[in-house]
Write a structure and sequence with these properties.
Layout: H1 3-22, E1 39-40, E2 48-49, E3 56-60, H2 62-66, H3 73-77, E4 83-85, E5 95-97, E6 105-109, E7 112-113, E8 135-140, E9 154-159, E10 171-180, E11 185-196, E12 199-210, E13 214-215, H4 222-228, E14 236-237, E15 243-256, E16 259-273, E17 281-296, E18 302-319, E19 325-342, E20 348-364, E21 373-387, E22 391-406, E23 415-433, E24 436-447, H5 451-455, E25 457-460, E26 465-468, E27 476-489, E28 492-518, E29 521-549, E30 552-567, E31 570-571, E32 579-587, E33 591-600, E34 616-625, E35 633-640, E36 664-672
Parallel strand pairs: 6-9, 26-29
Antiparallel strand pairs: 1-2, 3-8, 4-5, 6-7, 8-9, 10-11, 10-36, 11-12, 12-15, 13-14, 15-16, 16-17, 17-18, 18-19, 19-20, 20-21, 21-22, 22-23, 23-24, 24-27, 25-26, 27-28, 28-29, 29-30, 30-31, 30-32, 32-33, 33-34, 34-35, 35-36
């Protein structure tokens, strides 16, 4: 199924929905049956309570995001259960889930792809900013049949209100501003939604500016200095770690009693240092247009049909000095989906849908290590859930066809590859008591190789290796068994996910033993190859309310995660070590405070050419004060890495030349109206 067919169907849907909306004069939407902050939609389009599913999810809501650091997406979610960051400088950090990154982790906006080039290289920025979101949902693991496609590692879905789905009561919005000491940084963001009759209008903007950040030690790690016989330098600040970002957008929806139809436009531009090279910086620009709508039915087997489509133009330019553009990466594409949500019947929920994308990728310049390529994909899926009083079943099936075509960099004949991917999952759960949920799931997922894994052939400066793809690569297949426990009773609540994944044809990048010489400097040559692999690990969270009186409470919280990964060629590269986090949390009407200690272990299970990392412990303190009778005004402050500890993120390509920031004081204020 081609994307044009999907967009034609979406256009037809928009006409039908528009007709239904035109019949409405009330402009009201029915009240939802459950609280929004307990329901996630990324795992299943019909929404599901976090504590009543085998899908491993984490949610950052609007309140948390309003007071969150002015960080990139990867750095913001770093430290959540099972989640780390590629930490490729403040301007370019992508999420890592259960030790997997790149094309195995999809970053979505409102359920469809970003249509950028962030998965091509770790120095490429994700074309969305957390300050644009009113909610971020993270799905860990392969149970992403509705929204994941080939994302067998997980999904990060950034949800915004740029296309409103309901009319606000007056003006609804948020403004937030903050400043930080470690990088002399500041950030400001704001958004507002208001009604003009049956039309809801949204406007928003984000601006950030940060200088090179302070570091507690020399940038060069002791391990790298010992291995290469070089000096560590003086430290003080991390060279070329500055970042600047501007984003603005607007959208509008026509809202009626049976649904809505709307459109939006967004413009994002960013400039940031690469850290890997002292004189190289990157300018990124993306413009994006989206349409989205929903039509609810009064009767019949389906309760609603939803459609969305987006088009984006993306340009990433690497400057090798003032005014000297080097390599340019362009991405132009569109993606769309249509979902039919079934009507709930005797505890049975479900959905069926189609999804398609078409994207053109182009690399221009001497350091272009991936040829220009064309990627097309179309998929169809269904997810189903049966929930009885004490037990239930979950399951789904998805089929995708992905086609990649490229003209090799060496001028050879055009290469075309097509892949058929089948994915499915089945789960069963029981509730022995009202407070206890036990689940077991089995999932099989398939992923087509990316354009980099197939066609790369050149020096990749960001990773300091010469990368060679393999056009004969086959589908990557993984089977995952996962156990889930949710418990919530009285003063105690906890969550546990334990998983084991076996890969058939795991796509790995391994050294060949040969080197490539460029301007007298030698670089190892790495080849993408396939092998078998096993990943296993767990994520655990717990909280206990030690004391409460009225609106005041004191609680202790804890979290831990662990990943162990082996391939037939040895340990997998850049696998995060275990982490342990403990918090003491005070909550009340006027004031909240959190004292946190996070310990990350040493990593000494290493792939070839990989250096280990030492353990570290971060001490953090944060607080939120609501000083006025209007509790929507919040003054917040955070002290991070209070002991000025040297910390290096093992999953980062730059861990040995760029430690995490040193001691930081961040203050800000937000107003929700």
């Amino acid at each position: 199924m081609r994307l044009s067919l999907l967009l034609t169907a979406a256009s037809g849907f928009a006409l039908v929905a528009g007709g239904a909306l035109a019949q409405s004069s009330t402009g009201q939407t029915p009240q939802q049956a459950t609280e929004l902050d307990e329901v996630v939609v990324t795992g299943v389009p019909f929404g599901i309570n976090q504590r009543a599913t085998t899908i491993a999810t984490t949610v950052l809501d609007e309140q948390a995001l309003a007071q969150a650091p002015a960080a990139s997406l990867g750095d913001l979610v770093n430290g959540l259960p099972g989640v780390r960051s590629t930490d490729f400088a403040p301007g370019a950090s992508r999420p890592v889930i259960r030790g997997l990154s790149g094309p195995r982790v999809q970053v979505l906006t409102n359920g469809i792809g970003l249509i950028d080039a962030s998965s091509v290289s770790p120095d490429h920025q994700v074309a969305t900013d957390p300050a644009e979101a009113n909610r971020i949902e993270i799905v860990r693991g392969p149970a992403t049949l509705a929204y994941g496609g080939t994302a067998i590692g997980g999904v990060v879905n950034v949800l915004d209100d740029r296309i409103p789905d309901q009319l606000p009561d007056g003006v609804d919005g948020l403004v937030s501003t903050q400043a930080s000491s470690v990088d002399d940084g500041w950030a400001a963001s704001g958004r507002a939604t208001f009604a003009l009759g049956p039309v809801a209008v949204n406007v928003e903007g984000v601006k950030k500016d940060a200088s090179d950040y302070d570091i507690p030690t020399p940038a060069i790690s002791q391990r790298l200095a010992d291995a290469e016989g070089i000096s560590r330098g003086d430290g003080g600040t991390q060279p070329n770690s500055f970042s600047q970002l501007e984003s603005w957008g607007l959208g509008a929806s026509w809202i009626g009693s049976r649904g809505y139809i709307g459109a939006s436009y967004k413009d994002l531009s960013s400039t940031y240092g690469t850290v890997a090279e002292p004189d190289v910086f990157i300018e990124l620009k993306q413009t994006r247009e989206d349409v989205r709508g929903e039509l609810r039915f009064d009767s019949g087997p389906f309760q609603a049909i939803r459609g969305s489509a987006g088009h984006a133009e993306y340009t990433h330019t690497e400057f090798e000095g003032p005014g000297e553009p080097g390599t340019i990466f362009n991405s132009d594409g569109q993606e769309g989906r249509i979902d039919l949500v079934q009507r709930e019947r005797n505890g049975w929920n479900g959905a069926v849908g189609v999804q398609a994308l078409s994207r053109t990728f182009e690399a221009i310049g001497d350091e272009a290590f991936v040829p220009s390529s064309k990627i097309e994909e179309a998929g169809i899926y269904t997810v189903q859930r049966l929930d009885r009083d004490g037990w239930g079943l979950e399951g789904g099936l998805r089929y995708d066809r992905r086609t990649l075509a490229a003209d090799p960099l060496d001028g050879g004949a055009r290469v075309d590859r097509s892949f058929d991917n089948w994915s499915g999952s089945a789960a069963a759960f029981v509730r022995p008591t009202h407070n206890l949920f036990l689940g077991l799931s089995l999932a099989h997922n398939e992923r087509a190789p990316s354009e980099v894994e197939l066609f790369a052939d050149g020096l990749h400066v960001a990773t300091a290796v010469y990368e060679t793809g393999d056009v004969t690569l086959d589908n990557e297949k993984v089977t995952t068994l996962e156990g889930t426990v949710h418990y919530d009773a009285g003063r105690f609540r906890g969550d546990l996910h334990v998983y084991a994944s076996r890969y058939d044809g795991f796509i790995d990048e391994r050294p060949t033993g040969a080197t490539f010489v460029d301007d007298g400097e030698e670089f190892p040559i790495f080849q993408f190859t396939q092998t078998d692999a096993e990943f296993r690990g767990f994520e655990a969270e717990a909280a206990y309310e030690m004391w409460s009186s009225g609106d005041r409470a004191l609680a202790v919280e804890g979290a831990a995660d662990y990943v162990h990964a082996d391939t037939d060629l040895g340990p997998a590269a850049r696998i995060p070590p275990y982490s342990l986090t403990g918090r003491l949390v005070w909550t009340s009407t006027p004031f909240d405070a959190t004292f946190e200690v996070r310990h990350v272990g040493e990593q000494d299970r290493l792939a070839e050419f990989e250096l280990g990392t030492d353990s570290y412990t971060l001490v953090n303190l944060s607080g939120v004060w609501r000083p006025f009778s209007d509790r929507n005004v919040s003054v917040f402050a955070e002290g991070r890495n209070l002991t000025d500890e040297e910390a290096r993120e093992h999953v980062s390509f730059l861990k040995d030349v760029a430690p995490l920031p040193g001691r930081n004081l961040r203050v800000g204020v937000s107003y929700r109206f």
